[in-house]
Amino acid sequence: MALQIPRSLPAAAVVVMLMVLSSPGAQGRDSPCKCRVTISPSKTEALNHHNLLVCSVTDFYPGQIKVRWFQNGQEQTVGVVSTPLIRNGDWTFQILVMLEMTPQRGDVYTCHVEHPSLQSPVTVEWSKGSLLVSLQVPQDKDAHLSLAHLANTPIPSTCPGFHY
């Protein structure tokens, strides 16, 4: 199929048209999800000190996404601040969702991400001194997860079926 461009069409319109034709949405987005979810504290502090947990979700498409914070299984809505969607140059997006918190011994904080490209939500759990990642992988997919733990170091998780 050849693209015919009338001579009267301005060059800028041609560029925009070509970008739309080559966008991930135009291709159906059949490629596997490449989004990454990480949790990291804004500063390394002892227990009982005010801190900010940052849940970073990167490289997702389309832009609709739901990111929620939980503390010990209870959804947190107070103290949650989010950046607007940030457009990357490759049609993907990223977002930071922060939770103001004061960690207590035994508290578990969970960043819960829902996105149309995911067959099941991705959850990343954080507690002082540990990091747990929970991925639900469809039976027809495989996933390799290799995590090394360094105290308070962000460790990424990936979408089901995506290797890293």
Automatic annotation (TrEMBL):
Residue ranges of domain Ig-like in the record: 10-123
Recorded superkingdom: Eukaryota
Keywords: Signal
Region forming the signal peptide: 1-28
PROSITE patterns recorded: IG_LIKE (PS50835), IG_MHC (PS00290)
Family as reported in the entry's similarity comment: Belongs to the MHC class II family.
Stated name of the protein: Ig-like domain-containing protein
